[in-house]
């Protein structure tokens, strides 16, 4: 469950680039580790972000995890549906579970491709 | 696990295994100059002598006194059945309910407590309780700071001074701006509070009845504050919520209270009960435990601790508070009290308190030299101004078995002649009459 066309961070966020904007979310591995997600604290539209900033958090029945900015830029849009339906993060993490759309300037050098992320996941899964 | 100390032999064996000479060597990691030079303990005493000594000390207590003390903690009647319920060993010895499968009784009791308190204050959510009314105000303020990401807190000086001191202490190193809006002759200055509202304010904190007993309706003020997205925090008297306009009706976002008036003895200062309730999304910011009702895998009703991601054992540095406990037994005691009295009983009790206070005020102002501090509507306590220092009267009457009230001057400079007089349902007309006569005699 690691789509080829996406890029990944070490903290298990994915991004899908679309011109000057990128959609982001958490990966299948992340939602699986968290368990049933009950709540998401979303970033704010218009918020200026830098790589590594804590821009929100996800809560499940057994854990809570920070969401880190994968890019430098500005939050252009936020998926407010997730407030009512946080389970979408579990059911469809790469589709309906998108968290935010970011207007960004350049891509960070250390974003991983699907292959590199897949390696990270198999290491962490032990 | 038996609570039996090790024998000398056992201790010797352990030290030998460790290769140490004596118990002091176990503390070798602590620098010499940091170790205590002595513990300054008196010589040991036999059990018999200890009992005698403690009994002598307890003789100094006076519990047979007729008290008109209040200031947040009141002498109410607690039905014998309440004590009976909480003395059951299942409740009295129960520990924290982190394993729901072994704690359904405790969890259900907490859930019912939360429900009862929400109904009483007209609020949506309650937690499993906090330590007391003062720390509840602090936690409420922090909920507001976290959710608004602002740093300024407006505090009415009419709030119990002990609670304000707690708020000060707890927030000392948090780089927050605490702005106190002064009271006006014992009244909460709503105009000044309104004038201080702005977009930097995280929370507005008020109390009704305030420390001086004055009742206020904050509906209008809360509506104004909402325009600035300020969190409205109110501290109330839980018993009087059964007859006064409720926190929910006024539009409070967070309502807190000291639960002592609901079935807890005064006990020389505690343990007491911190009630905290909130509406809407703020529930995610609530500190402490929250019990929830759910269904097990077979479809039966069950109770659990819920939204635990706010707590320390799930996210240490991001926890909503450092509290990882609740006043379970006190909450249960309050629940038993509320349930036994019911809405009718609570209302009757509150009304009796209000009537007694009005009668006392009437009798006291008849005495030349005594007047009310202000003419605002009051709850079950009110402040009077005396022609002398209030402590003088308190000292004189205490010797005769009556505590006439609380001298306000210690907490409010300039009010040394003012006395706060509280009347609960326990104070009879005769006692109130005696109080008046003794005051007249003492002046």
Descriptive overview:
The complex is a heterodimer of chains A (126) and B (443). Chain A has 126 residues and is of the alpha+beta class. Chain A has a single domain (7-124), classed as RNA polymerase II/Efflux pump adaptor protein, barrel-sandwich hybrid domain (OB fold (Dihydrolipoamide Acetyltransferase, E2P)), CATH 2.40.50.100. Chain A is built from 4 helices and 9 strands, in the order βββαβββββααβα. Chain A has a 6-stranded antiparallel sheet with strand order 1-2-3-9-8-5. A 3-stranded antiparallel sheet of chain A has the order 4-6-7, with no helix packed on it. The longest helix of chain A has 11 residues, at 114-124. Chain A is globular, with a radius of gyration of 13 Å. By secondary structure, chain B is α/β, with parallel strands linked by helices. Chain B has 2 domains: 66-75 and 343-442, Aspartate Aminotransferase, domain 1 (Alpha-Beta Complex); 80-337, Type I PLP-dependent aspartate aminotransferase-like (Major domain) (Aspartate Aminotransferase, domain 2, 3-Layer(aba) Sandwich), CATH 3.40.640.10. In chain B, 36% of the residues lie in helices and 14% in strands. Chain B has a 7-stranded mixed sheet with strand order 2-8-7-6-5-3-4, with helices on both faces. A 4-stranded antiparallel sheet of chain B has the order 11-12-15-14, covered by helices on one side. The longest helix of chain B is centred in the C-terminal third of the chain and has 38 residues, at 328-365. The radius of gyration of chain B is 25 Å and the shape is globular. The chains are: A alpha+beta (126), B alpha/beta (443). The A-B interface holds A 38-39, 41, 57, 59-64, 66 and B 284, 307-309, 314-315, 318.
């Amino acid at each position: 469950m690691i789509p080829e066309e996406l890029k990944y961070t070490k903290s298990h966020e994915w991004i899908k680039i679309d011109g000057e904007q990128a959609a982001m979310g958490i990966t299948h591995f992340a939602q699986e580790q968290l368990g049933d997600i009950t709540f998401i604290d979303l970033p704010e539209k218009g918020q200026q972000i830098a790589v590594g900033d804590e821009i929100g958090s996800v809560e499940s029945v057994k854990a809570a995890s920070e969401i880190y900015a994968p890019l430098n830029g500005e939050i252009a849009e936020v998926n407010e549906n997730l407030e009512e339906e946080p389970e979408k993060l579990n059911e469809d993490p790469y589709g309906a579970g998108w968290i935010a759309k970011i207007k960004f300037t350049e891509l960070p050098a250390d974003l991983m491709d699907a292959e590199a992320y897949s390696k990270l996941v198999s290491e962490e899964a032990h | 696990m038996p609570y039996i100390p090790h024998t000398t032999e056992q201790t010797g064996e352990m030290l030998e295994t460790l290769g140490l000479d004596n118990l002091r060597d176990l503390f070798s990691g602590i620098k010499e100059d940091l170790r205590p030079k002595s513990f300054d303990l008196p010589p040991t005493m036999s059990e018999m002598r200890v009992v005698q000594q403690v009994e002598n000390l307890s003789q100094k207590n006076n519990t047979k006194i007729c008290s008109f003390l209040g200031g947040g903690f009141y002498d109410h009647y607690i039905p014998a059945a309440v004590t009976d319920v909480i003395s059951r060993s299942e409740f009295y010895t129960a520990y924290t309910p982190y394993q729901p499968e072994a704690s359904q009784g405790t969890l259900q009791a907490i859930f019912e407590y939360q429900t009862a308190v929400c109904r009483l204050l007209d609020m949506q959510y309650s937690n499993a309780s906090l330590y007391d009314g003062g720390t509840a105000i602090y936690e409420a303020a922090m909920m507001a700071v976290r959710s608004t990401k602002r740093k300024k807190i407006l505090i009415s000086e009419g709030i119990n001074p002990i609670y304000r001191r707690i708020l000060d202490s707890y927030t000392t190193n948090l780089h927050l701006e605490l702005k106190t809006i002064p009271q006006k002759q014992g009244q909460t200055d709503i105009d000044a509070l309104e004038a201080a509202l702005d977009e930097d304010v995280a929370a507005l904190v008020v109390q009704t009845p305030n420390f001086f007993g004055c009742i206020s309706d904050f509906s209008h003020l809360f509506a104004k504050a909402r325009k600035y997205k300020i969190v409205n925090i109110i501290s109330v008297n839980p018993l009087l919520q059964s007859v006064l306009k409720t926190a929910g009706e006024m539009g409070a976002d967070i309502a807190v209270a000291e639960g002592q008036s609901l079935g807890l003895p005064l006990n020389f200062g505690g343990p007491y009960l911190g009630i905290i309730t909130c509406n809407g999304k703020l529930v995610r910011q609530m500190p402490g435990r929250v019990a929830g009702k759910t269904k097990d895998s077979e479809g039966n009703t069950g109770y659990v601790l819920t939204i635990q991601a706010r707590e320390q054992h799930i996210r240490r540095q991001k926890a909503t508070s450092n509290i990882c406990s609740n006043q379970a037994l006190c909450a249960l005691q309050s629940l038993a009290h509320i349930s036994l009295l019911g809405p009718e009983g609570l209302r009757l009790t509150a009304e009796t308190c209000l009537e007694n206070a009005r009668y006392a005020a009437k009798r006291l102002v008849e005495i030349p030299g005594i007047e009310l501090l202000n003419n605002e509507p009051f709850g079950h306590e009110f402040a009077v101004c005396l022609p002398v220092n209030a402590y003088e009267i308190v000292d004189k009457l205490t010797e005769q078995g009556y505590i006439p009230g609380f001298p306000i001057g210690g907490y409010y400079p300039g009010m040394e002649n003012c006395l706060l007089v509280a009347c609960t349902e326990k104070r009879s007309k005769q006692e109130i009459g005696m109080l008046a006569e003794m005051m007249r005699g003492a002046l």
